[in-house]
Amino acid sequence: MNILGLFKPEYFYQPKVALRRIIPFAKKETSEFVERELPWGMTISVRRLEEHEKMLSVLGVCDLIVTESLWRLTQPGELAVDVGANIGYMSSILAKRVGSKGSVYSFEAHPEIFKELKHNVKRWEQDNNINNISIQNLAVSDKSGFLKLGVPEAFN
């Protein structure tokens, strides 16, 4: 590993993440889900070895540019919408940023992923007193009606 690769903002402000890159995990995680602490103080449950978990383990954030943009473009007290919320990573940023006077509406169409989103939001309500996220197991479109959600066989 190139030691200069550790001089990134995502490591500088989160030394624990940098240490994870240098020192191998002492405990091998074997459960389907793992907990990752987010820089803004919330913990998110992610599937082990999925893309979110890989990014959070290596960088401490998912998609640094989008994360930073959402934080800068969202103001306290605003209403924010997360369409295709997945497990709630972006919803967590929005909820933290808009604060108790703002609201976040999160939509996730896939029923299994929605369960993960619901689990994370419930945890944030209990652990972080975040009560401004409203979740819906729906797709969002400019037309009303019903569609069948296509899920590839490789999706587990």
Describe this structure in words.
- With 156 residues, the chain is α/β, with parallel strands linked by helices.
- The protein has a single domain, classed as 3-Layer(aba) Sandwich (Rossmann fold), CATH 3.40.50.
- The chain is built from six helices and five strands; from the N terminus they run ααββααβαβαβ.
- Strands 3-4-5 form a three-stranded parallel sheet, covered by helices on one side.
- Strand 4, helix 6 and strand 5 (133-136) form a beta-alpha-beta unit.
- The longest helix has 18 residues, at 111-128.
- The radius of gyration is 17 Å and the shape is globular.
- The two termini are 32 Å apart.
CATH class: Alpha Beta
Helix content: 25-40%
Strand order of the largest sheet: 3-4-5
Sheet with the most strands? 3 strands, parallel
State the low-pLDDT regions, or none. Answer: none
CATH topology: Rossmann fold
The structural class is alpha/beta
What's the number of helices?
Answer: 6
SSE topology string? HHEEHHEHEHE
Number of domains: 1
The outline comes out as: globular
CATH homologous superfamily placement: Vaccinia Virus protein VP39
